[in-house]
Amino acid sequence: MSPRTAWTIALPYLAFFLLPLGWLALTSFWPDAELARPLPSHLTLENHAAALAGGGLARAVLNSLLVSGATAALALALAAPAAFAIARLGVRGGRALLAAALAVSMFPPIATAAPLYAALRAARLLDTLPGLVLPYTSFSVPLALWLVTGTFRALPLELYRAARVDGCTPLGAFRRVLLPLAAPGVATAGLLVFVFAWNELLYAVTFLTSPSRRTVPVALALFGGEFRDPFVVLAAASMLATVPVVAIAVLFQRRVVAGLTAGAVKG
Amino acid sequence: MSVAGVRLELESLAKSYGGVPALRGVSLSVGDGKLVAVVGPSGCGKSTLLSLVAGLDAPDAGVIRIDGRVVNDLSPRERDVAMVFQSYALYPHMTVRRNLAFPLDVAGVPRREIAARVEEVAALLGLAPLLDRRPAALSGGQRQRVALGRALVRRPKVFLLDEPLSNLDAALRLGVRAELKKLHERLGATFVYVTHDQAEAMTLADRIAVLRDGALEQVGTPREIYGAPATAFVARFVGTPPVNLVAPEVLGLPEGPIDVALRPEDLRVSREAGAAGLAARVWLVEPMGSETWVTVERAGARLVARCEAAFDAPPGAPVRLGFDPRRLQRFERETGRRVVPDRPG
Fold this sequence. Notes:
Number of strands of chain A: 0
Helix content of chain A: over 70%
Order of helices and strands of chain B: EEEHEEHEHHHEHEHEEHHEEEEEEEEE
Mean pLDDT of chain A: 87
Low-confidence stretches of chain B: none
CATH architecture of chain A: Orthogonal Bundle
Shape of chain A: globular
Structural class of chain B: alpha+beta
CATH superfamily of the largest domain in chain B: P-loop containing nucleotide triphosphate hydrolases
Oligomer: heterodimer
Largest interface: A-B, 18 and 25 residues
Strand content of chain A: under 5%
CATH topology of the largest domain in chain B: Rossmann fold
Distance between the termini of chain B: 55 Å
CATH class of the largest domain in chain B: Alpha Beta
Structural class of chain A: mainly alpha
CATH class of chain A: Mainly Alpha
Number of domains of chain B: 2
């Protein structure tokens, strides 16, 4: 494919995603009083200041970082050893386990919201951040398990066998040889889980009641109730809340690209 | 640097995967400091044999003894064997130095001793200038030496080599083959060398074990394997060009329930008019430089002869064949087993 053809296909696609984001960014700098005009006469940071006023948004970003980070870490800690066992140790029922995990991840979250609510209340985890991390983790482990199992399977079997002959226990071979080599795939899984947890609204709005524990999607969804005329301020808040996750994605980008194309190209 | 070799004994080893037998009762004894080559076509069970000895797989039945000690229930690390893999299996995220140090590192050897032993092995194999490179930045031959070094650095009791030369190009292979032989002589360690290449086995091994469908066909010195093959399979497997295995009437002998085998160097082809021997026609002439391989047709069968370099003839040219009947080997057609000749008088 020539670069020209590639761009012809890619540009509309990129525009579809980036134009609304660009418009949102522009809106966030739009002076409130000029909302009726086709274009603003000047740009302002007042909206961002208003969005940050009171500290509710900053608190929500911090909460989201904590919840998403903990979810990603916990999901990987559970999925990576399990994926290794399925891919390399010949665990009986490994395939059945993968299928079951897939089935679990297909479950509509709305169907589990009520029972989970009851369970969290019984465990006294309602309206706490750990109470959000647990269901998030249970929903993201299947995704992480599939991705990381694929990564481990793509690593040559002889590497594992070499590590064993060189004196490693199975767990030692996992830690010293396979895990470092699977890092791109593991990072990909971690990022996808992080973004999933960052975006989740249903559980967050159901299980959290205190304003100080709101995550970003909840804070944005409930923005209207707290401000007089929130349109441009909401745009500014959305922009500010997107920055951390974009920053993390860019940080991991190189590894993620490597992870998504792992096995496609040799070397 | 030298390693005390030990005796490796396999007794009635059996292993199947999902009901398909890979090894059916293999018994083999490798003397200390010897190099035994295990040869056979792909799928004959050679790699399974190595996996069992290394402890990467457990046998269904049979006993593995290293230095007189039964090791069936020991993990790979407790067996003290090293292995060189066909793909080399170098750790791509580590430098050559860390690859070489890895087995010692895992074993908890003190840092200073690791450094000394890595230097020693690197010097032995000419890897010193490459120590800080990663495997991806090495040529095939260099990777092969690193894989060998990683096995050597442990000074193990037994070395297992799984097709170590098969990923090298032909020009490099002969050089490394010679290096391996000198290395084995110098180390005095016990080697089990798996290959599908009969020439490698012939040149390197003290003894050759020919494996077929999971069972041993024959174990013997290279000379025994070549000169007195126990079965038609073994006869066909060793030698280049391959042995002529034909019905006896092709060579003008009485019919019978046997096949006869004649090595290409034992078949004489003559173009002289009026020469004695069996009539045949030239089918193909292949000059090899130092000699010429001539394929002839007779009674619907093709026979290969190694002739002098100057031999030349157009296809279809009439020739006469001669051979010394004492060089013939006979095999039962049904079982492939060698018929022991009746010693005359």
